[in-house]
Amino acid sequence: MTKPPRQKSQPLLRETDLPVRSRLLKARDPARPQLPFDPMPDRIEPCLALLKAKPPSGPDWICEADANLYAFDLLYFDGHDLTKMELSGRRHLLEDLIGESEGAIRVSEVLEADGATVLAAACEHGLEGIIVKHRDSAYRWGRLGDWLKIKCIQSDSFVIVGYEPSSAARGGIGSLLLGAYQGNAFVYVGSVGTGFKEKDAMKLRRMLDTLKIKRAPVAVDKKGLVFVQPTLIAEIEYRAWTDDGKLRHSSYKGLREQQDNAAIYKLGE
After folding, report:
1. Cα–Cα separations (whole angstroms), residue 237 to 102, 134, 168
2. pLDDT digits (tens, 9 = 90+) for 82-105
3. Which has the least CB within 10 A, 107, 132, 189, 242?
4. pLDDT for 219-240, tens place per residue?
5. Which distant-in-sequence residues (6+ apart) come within 8 Å of 15 by Cβ?
6. Could you tell me the domains of the chain?
7. How many Cα atoms occupy the beta-carbon half-sphere of 250 within 13 Å?
8. Residue 10: its pLDDT value, please?
């Protein structure tokens, strides 16, 4: 007697309109509270790291380290919106969900050390920098300071407000004068005179000469300068800031391809 053909499995179909729920990798901890169900959001705006020159210290902050594909947060799970839960709780659920995986997807590692120590180790290994997050923070979109980014070598965007001419320098540019936002106005944050390639410097000089203006857009106490409309945005690498608010050991890395005023460095009030 032949067996009747098996029907194809349809695991995602249900007789009711109830949502399909994911399967847990292991049993839930009964001591954990049961959360009410929340609708799955169409989109969650990303939480962004605020750039800082030095990492914070103290037990309220955690440092995370990069390799393979790392999952570093859990915002929605099993019908629950987790964005209002504190970071430490979200990470606890994420670690339970993924487990101690050695595969391609892993949970980002929390480094139990002071931020300055972690940053020094990252720089010694040639990494770009570290991310530091406040343990008790909910997930909030934008750069609000709950997450911080500290780079080994700082790199930011500054508006070009003028240049110092030079007959000996490439393209006739001795140095570029740089500005940053302070409130709604630009302030002078120093100059950059290294990093120029001859071809790029000549092209940049031609662009700047079409933007010349007579009145300085920022206060600069130096003679013989050429001022320009604050239109072009340069990417600058630098090591630190001086006590009077100027860039130290800066190097020109090129113009931003898109004119994005939101990317111009903002000084504290």
Report:
1. 36, 27, 23
2. 999 999 999 999 988 887 767 778
3. 242
4. 998 889 999 999 999 999 998 8
5. none
6. 50-151 (3.30.470.30), 154-263 (2.40.50.140)
7. 22
8. 39
